[in-house]
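About this split. The held-out portion is used to measure sequence recovery: a designer receives only the structure tokens and must propose an amino acid at every position. Recovery is the fraction of positions where the proposal matches the reference. Here is one held-out target exactly as it appears in the evaluation file.
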């Protein structure tokens, strides 16, 4: 199973953000996207989800083209997205947010139990209004809701941003456990330590393109690529 992006160009109106971008995410691997602010990382996530239209190139999941699908159809193909900022239904309870996720692909109790087993803290807070959760708990719920799709590919845009260390550890452990299920995870992340512990390969973006793709095992904390593409 593979998500493959080839020659993708996309942007907003007359402004092109992604330029002939190519990368792929394999089943059972975590692919991290790194780059400075403005490199196009979030736009890439939105383009995969059909939220930003592709002007050129292809996006395929297991060989099936998805770049022309309307945005509401992309999750039906098995691609789930947790945007930066989480975007929960704030007035709804934890349980109701999860139910919304289950509705999308008509999943049931088995899927609900799977996501609640991943995040036991959510099981304790099913009746709590989601806007009253802590930032870390909201991020757990956003990931849990996405996993209700039983996706083949999970897109995570800066999931550890603003979280305390214990929550960052929990998110990291979750990503690693999902890898064992065979899911392909595409992760936008700026923290070098988190990337080195979570990812199998790193795609470095600049100027709307993937300029370098490196196996994480070939990177160390002091790698010049981090300084070149991320500025750390």
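Reference sequence for scoring:
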């Amino acid at each position: 199973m593979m998500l493959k992006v080839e020659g993708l160009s996309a942007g907003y109106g007359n402004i092109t953000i992604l330029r002939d971008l190519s990368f792929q995410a394999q089943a059972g691997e975590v692919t991290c996207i790194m780059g400075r602010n403005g490199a196009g990382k979030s736009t890439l996530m939105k383009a995969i989800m059909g939220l930003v239209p592709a002007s050129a190139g292809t996006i395929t999941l297991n060989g099936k083209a998805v770049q022309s699908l309307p945005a509401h159809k992309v999750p039906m193909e098995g691609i789930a997205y947790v945007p930066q900022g989480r975007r929960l239904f704030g007035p709804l309870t934890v349980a109701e947010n999860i139910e919304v996720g289950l509705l999308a692909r008509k999943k049931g109790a088995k899927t609900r139990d799977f996501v609640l087993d991943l995040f036991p803290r959510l099981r304790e807070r099913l009746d709590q209004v989601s806007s009253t959760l802590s930032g870390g708990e909201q991020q757990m719920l956003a990931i849990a809701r996405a996993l209700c799709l039983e996706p083949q590919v999970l897109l995570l845009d800066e999931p550890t941003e603003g979280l305390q260390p214990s929550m960052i550890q929990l998110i990291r452990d979750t990503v690693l456990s999902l890898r064992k299920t065979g899911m392909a995870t595409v992760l936008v992340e700026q923290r070098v330590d988190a990337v080195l512990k979570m990812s199998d390969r790193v795609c470095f973006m600049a100027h709307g393109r993937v300029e370098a793709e490196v196996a994480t095992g070939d990177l160390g904390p002091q790698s010049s690529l981090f300084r070149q593409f991320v500025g750390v």
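Annotator remark: The chain has a mean pLDDT of 91.
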